[in-house]
Amino acid sequence: MLKSFNKTLLGAALIGASLAPHAFAETTLNALFMAQAAYSEADVRAMTDAFAKANPDIKVNLEFVPYEGLHDKTVLAQGSGGGYDVVLFDVIWPAEYATNKVLVDVSSRVTDEMKKGVLPGAWTTVQYDSKYYGMPWILDTKYLFYNKEILEKAGIKTPPKTWDELTEQAKTIKDKGLLATPIAWSWSQAEAAICDYTTLVSAFGGDFLKDGKPAFQTGGGLDALKYMVSSYSSGLTEFQGIPGRRRPQGLRKRRCRLRAELDLHVQHGQRSERQQGRRQGRRRAGAGCCRQERGFGRQRLDGPRHHLGQQASG
Questions:
Q1: Which residues are CB-neighbours of 310 under 8 A, at least 6 positions away?
Q2: Span 5-40, pLDDT tens digits
Q3: Taking the complete model, does pTM exceed 0.70, yes or no?
Q4: I need a labelling partner for 166 at 20 to 30 A (CA). Which of 34, 37, 73, 182 fits?
């Protein structure tokens, strides 16, 4: 399995080059990657070095940017007429990129042999209008970590297996004064809130779309949102999800705004200004609390799901 997975990564990393016309002497490819989780810069450079040894007539220039700058860097480079030969892109961008011709349609170059080494569902993330615009590369997931020592102190013998058990155990830890906020999510990081909401919608049996119409505002979708609000309003969840860091003032305000928005959506109505003011005041009073230990932690290990594609010329 590991051998197959490594082959998939290597093949994905080099697909941009394989899609290019036949290389002649001194051919140069410019590639844009993300300087974030899931792999290190050293990993990408090692894969690039292996490719260079196998293709001595091709030079690959690597550039790394934080995830927050990846989209704009790609679009601006393409608009300037230069662009990149290979770019890493997030699952939420194919429609925009395909419509604006930021990426090249590579459908005719994706072979059945390529598809065998990748999970079928992953291929849908590089498609738009039944065409392929890249190669799946990082298919990430979520993991639940727990602190054995804290669970033992709380008298908990086994880690939670359901969302209800997670809540119950977190309450026990909090009630015994072991941690102020036992659960650590990452809702303040980039688009992590909607990513985690997506996970919870599925867990609660909901749907985003049903018969072509939005369905996340009812059933499991609404239950998932209520769970997020309840987990936070009960004081069980640490909103930021980065133990040991104090939130900057702007982030505290953003957290309060998001919390207020979640409350309003769940209640299906507006609170009075006085009610909102009291609740927001209480939130601000405790906004600076951040502990270095956590009973439970959920973090996106691999960053958003990403793919490699060949950028269209400007």
A1: 15, 16, 19, 20, 85, 86, 87, 103, 104, 106, 134
A2: 333 333 333 344 444 445 455 799 999 998 876 678
A3: no
A4: 37
